[in-house]
Write a structure and sequence with these properties.
globular, nucleotide-binding, single chain, Nucleotidyltransferase, domain 5, xylose metabolism, Xylulose kinase, carbohydrate metabolism, alpha/beta, about 500 residues, binds 5-O-phosphono-D-xylulose, binds adenosine-5'-diphosphate
Length: about 500
């Protein structure tokens, strides 16, 4: 029997899965690491933590594995997107990674529009200038830490840095490069024009490969530390959302994904590189060669729930916290939550907005709050579905993955708010499975990604929308949408009091 490993370098943890040739997950290991929030709007991580935790996790995985390690044919990656890792000439890390959910770069986004022009930026990158993307972070470091920036020889995205440490080879691949605002997405090459406009040496951008391409094998040192064979082939991998899509079988036109990790996304497959969404949703290269996807993002999706748990139910598990929320009626007894804990991306690209609970009263219990949090996150995701539907897409079925897909009541809430069938897969670890599919495809297990996805992606359950709930949620959604408008100015006033 042959095996592959999928590594999902998430925001909250690195999740490792070992899958065999029949698509069965044989072993799983997860190792978490912290976020560093030095100031309001800042979000960083230490790249060394990603490497250490992956090393520890792989050693544990190999230790639990009963077979022969030389039968593990390949490893590939799925990674949190957009994070900036800067390396010096000797490829040492220059500072903490600045992550996708860090919103310190509003001034740099404005600078990008002023210098490149909004239309031209959309022509080249297909995306607007958003705080979370990589180019604004590069410009922030250039402006605020010039001495450090002068030492930078190359930038890497999070999983590309991890792969570098495991192989000694520097690369990026199209699906993650698409989230930097430095890639010409349609033409699949770094934009010389954008690099020149910001006086960035193009060598700062790593060489690009396809997601399924083999970039080398493990270094002897890494193989020795984990117990893996130094012959194990390493494949480039993809952005977590591209891998989540592969791992959920989103490989043809008309298929849609909802993923609730730390962030939340609604993603739809695109065959073409020339659809015009005017920057309302992200438009990125897929991990499948020459394909694309469009995507709306809720910055604090799972994060809103984990924040709520940490602050108000520290000693409870997610299962305990959510136990009984199916008994709370639709609308959480008149309580509405907007999940803007870290600002928002879709449909409001707004780093200043913050979250609200509206309608609190003395009779509300923790269960009402927990249900309101789940509903608020789902309303935010529904805003992206509305954009897709308005553009003419027909969305009748959505595959739901990520930590959020562990809860049955939440999946029913998704079906009712989205007014679509929601499919739960046997494993909610879509991005890790997508990474494993890329490794299996790269290793030649089949001639198409689709064939491997058909084998690896297994449905567990389908949640049908309940008509009565759909109607109630339509009314609540319109109230939810009002909260942004009504709290925008209030939050601008409050922003000077923040840390
Ligand atoms: N049992 C559960 N029920 C509902 N949500 C859960 C459960 N366990 C985890 N989650 C949610 O999933 C999120 C983590 O999802 P995951 O896909 O692992 O994230 P990431 O890839 O960002 O590290 C948590 O923030 C939490 O909100
Ligand atoms: O910024 C985005 C997508 O544009 C996020 O989706 C990140 O890619 C992080 O993902 P998770 O850790 O939440 O899965």
């Amino acid at each position: 029997m042959k095996y592959v490993i999928g590594i999902d370098l998430g925001t909250s943890a690195v999740k490792l899965i070992l899958i065999n040739q029949t698509g069965t997950i044989v072993e799983e290991v997860s190792k978490s690491y912290p976020l560093i929030h030095e100031k309001s709007g800042y979000s960083e991580q230490e790249p060394e933590q990603w490497v250490e935790k992956t090393r520890e996790g792989l050693a544990e995985l190999v230790n639990k594995f009963n077979g022969n390690v030389t039968d593990i044919e390949g490893i590939s990656y799925s990674g949190q997107m957009h994070g900036l890792v800067l390396l010096d000439e000797s490829h040492s890390v220059l500072r903490n990674a600045i992550l996708w959910n860090d919103v310190r770069t509003t001034a740099q986004c404005k600078q990008i529009y002023d210098v490149v022009g909004k239309e031209r930026l959309l022509d080249i990158t297909k995306n607007p200038a958003l705080e979370g993307f990589t180019l604004p972070k590069i410009l922030w470091v250039k402006e605020n830490e010039p001495e450090l920036f002068a030492k930078a020889s190359v930038f890497l995205l999070p999983k590309d840095y991890l792969r570098y440490r495991m192989t000694g080879k520097i690369h990026s691949e199209y699906s993650d490069a698409a989230g930097t605002l430095l890639l010409n997405v349609g033409e699949k090459k770094w934009s010389t024009e954008i690099c020149q406009l910001f006086e960035l040496n193009e060598e700062l951008c790593p060489p690009l490969v396809e997601s399924h391409e083999c970039v080398g094998t493990l270094t002897d040192e890494f193989a020795h530390q984990t117990g893996l064979s130094p012959e194990t082939k390493v494949f480039a991998g993809g952005a977590d959302n591209a891998c989540g899509a592969i791992g959920a079988g989103i490989l043809t036109e008309g298929t849609t994904l909802c993923s609730v990790g730390t962030s939340g996304v609604v993603l739809s497959y695109e065959e073409r590189n020339d659809r015009d969404f005017a920057g309302k949703v992200h438009y990125f290269n897929h991990g499948k060669e020459n394909a694309f996807y469009t995507m709306g993002v809720t910055l604090a999706a799972g994060y809103s729930l984990s924040w709520f748990k940490e602050v108000f139910a520290e000693h409870e598990s997610f299962e305990q916290l959510l136990d009984g929320i199916d008994e709370v009626p639709v609308g959480a007894n008149g309580l509405l939550f907007t999940p803007y804990l870290a600002g928002e991306r879709t449909p409001h690209a707004d780093p200043t907005i913050r979250a609200s609970f509206i309608g609190m009263e003395g009779a509300h219990t923790k269960k009402d709050f927990a249900r309101a949090v789940l509903e608020g996150i789902t309303f935010s995701l529904h805003e992206s579905i509305e954009i897709f539907r308005e553009s003419g897409k027909v969305i009748e079925q959505i595959t739901s993955i990520g930590g959020g897909a562990k809860n049955e009541t939440w999946l029913q809430i998704q079906a009712d708010i989205f007014n679509a069938k929601v499919v739960k897969l046997q494993s909610e670890q879509g991005p890790g499975i997508g990474a494993a599919i890329l490794a299996a495809y790269g290793a030649g297990w089949s001639s198409t990604l689709q064939e491997i996805a058909d084998l690896f992606v297994q449905q567990a359950n389908v949640y049908e929308p309940i008509a009565e709930n759909v109607e109630k949620y339509k009314e609540l959604f319109s109230l939810y949408q009002d909260v942004y408008k009504q709290t925008k100015e209030l939050n601008e006033g409050l922003s000077k009091f923040r840390r």
